[in-house]
Every structure is written in structure tokens, then in C-alpha cells.
What does this fold into?
Amino acid sequence: MGGKIKLGIVGFGRVVEVIHLPLLKKFPLIEVCGVFDITPQRLSLAARRGFATYSRLDEMLAADLDAVLIATPHASHADLAGKFLQAGKHVLLEKPVTVTGAEALALQSTAAAHGKLVSVFHNRRYDRDFKLVRQAIDEGVLGNVSFVERRHQMFGSGASFGVKSFRPTWREERAYGGGALLDWGVHLLDQLLNAGLGKCIEVRSAIMGISRRQGDVEDYVYADLLTDRSIRMMMEVNFSSHPVSPFWVVGGDRGTLHVNPDGKAYLHKRGFLPRELLLESASDEGPLRIYASFVDVLTGQGELAVTLEQAIETMRVADCIRNYAQQPEEIDHGYSVHGASL
It folds into this structure.
């Protein structure tokens, strides 16, 4: 591919304004050549920002574009990505890649049939807390790892981040792919599955609404995962709690690592006082790497930082978490837990 990469943006919401546009400005090889959105107010804003706009999807599908960034509600990802792949465009998707693993596998087939790339913006894979955890695991600081606990807690679904002119509460609506599992849950799963601790082979899970104030979707997800290396990994997302528990607890036969919400991390070893570990400074290096790899592959060099195959594996486990929680054994307190092998 010679010259600049002509990129279209599908969905001009706040995540594009706050995250993607600042990143795109750092890549002179990428030229944003058009924006599509179903909301007139957002199209007007894009025009004021100097971008060409499309009010009809078929116009963008037919446009002279090399690739598209799709940043729309989760439930629309599979359909939109499939159409752009069939129209000969490479695709970079906001997470999650799709709502289900079956949809992600269908995208893989479509991409292969048309010789196009799909990558997914799993930016949390490069967060400084996860990088510290991965470093401790890789360097053997903890010895043989036996368990990992990963939590994300917050008040509310993050619906306030949505734009008022579209549908601010879509993250709380099942029809749009809302809910804790597809929002923050896939971030945590992507981290756990890329921690170098093996393939997930068994799941126990619980999904529920705690607050009952967040639409028709869950605001709490718990999953207990077992890897093929006999390592237990626990994931918890709670949209009804202030973050007080550690983000990470990682234990091995030589020590335990705690990473706390205040950005501090401590290594605990028997017979020693806790030792504070320094997290690197926050930066946009990780998200930049996702874009840089996308550019590299389109220009004939390098490989994708986040592959479609990795995103499919994340959705495979997410499907199991959802399915096991929906086919449960009832227990005392009115919610359910179910375990099974993958």
C-alpha cells in the first residue's frame, strides 16, 4: 500500500473524540477521510472539526477508503465490520470485537475470504498495572504462580460517558450490547488471557444485577477460571461499588503481589516487610502501539499487536461465563453459580 492510509470513522462518539483522534494525530501516514454517524448532531460536530461526513452508510461503504475504525455500540460491531470487510476495507474495532464468539468467528471467515485485516482496540492490555503484573510473572519474582485475582469496581455503568444526542443509556441496554461483561469484563479477560499463564479450560461464573438501577443488563460479574497449567484466575466486575479492593492479587510460591486502586503496588514475602514496587508513568504508549502495528501491517511490515484470534479467544471465554451463569444450579441467596469444563 503506497501513500497515506485513508481511514474512515464509523461512529463519532466521545470515545473517538477523547481517545482515538488524539492518537490518530500522531500518525502522519493515516488520513481521516470521512466520518459516518447516524446522529445529525455528531455529524455536524465532525464537519466543524474539518472532516468529510457521510449521512448514509452505503456512501461510506462505496468510498475510496483503505480501512475503517468502528466505534459504535457493541451489538452493531458484527454487522458493520462484516459489511466493510465485504466492501474491501480493513477494520479496526473498538472492543469488544463482537457480542458473541460465533459472530467473531464469522468475521474471521469474512476477513479471510476478502483478504482483509481485523484488529481490536484492547488498549487495557497496555495499562501500567497489567504491565507490572506481567513483568513480575515473566521475571519469576513470585516463583511458580498459583492464582490471580483481578477486580474492577466503580459506581455506575459509565453511561454518563455517552453523548446526549444519541442514546446515553445504551451501555445499560441489552439490545445495544450493554452490561458489565461486555464493557469492563472483556478488558479484564483480555488481560488474564494474555498474562502468559495458559489457556482457560474451565469456568465457574455468576452474573447478576445488584443495584437494579442499571437498565436490563447485569452490573456484577464473577468468574473463576482454571488454566491448562492448573492456575486459578478470578475476575470480578462490580458497577455498584467504590474501588477499595486490590485491582490485582497475584500469588506464587515465592511471594504475592498486590496492586491497589491508588496506583501503589507491594510485593509480600514471608519473613519480610512488604516492598513497594514502582509502576511506570501513565502514557499512551500502549494504544499507540495498537495503531502503529495496524499501520505497519498495512504498509507491509510487522504484525498486529492485537489479533482477531486473540479477540476470538476472549469472546469464547466470555460466552462460557454468560452461558454457565444462565444455566445454573440455584443456591441459597437467590443468585446462581454453575461450573463446567470448556
Remarks:
- Residues 330-340 have pLDDT under 50 and may be disordered.
- The radius of gyration is 21 Å.
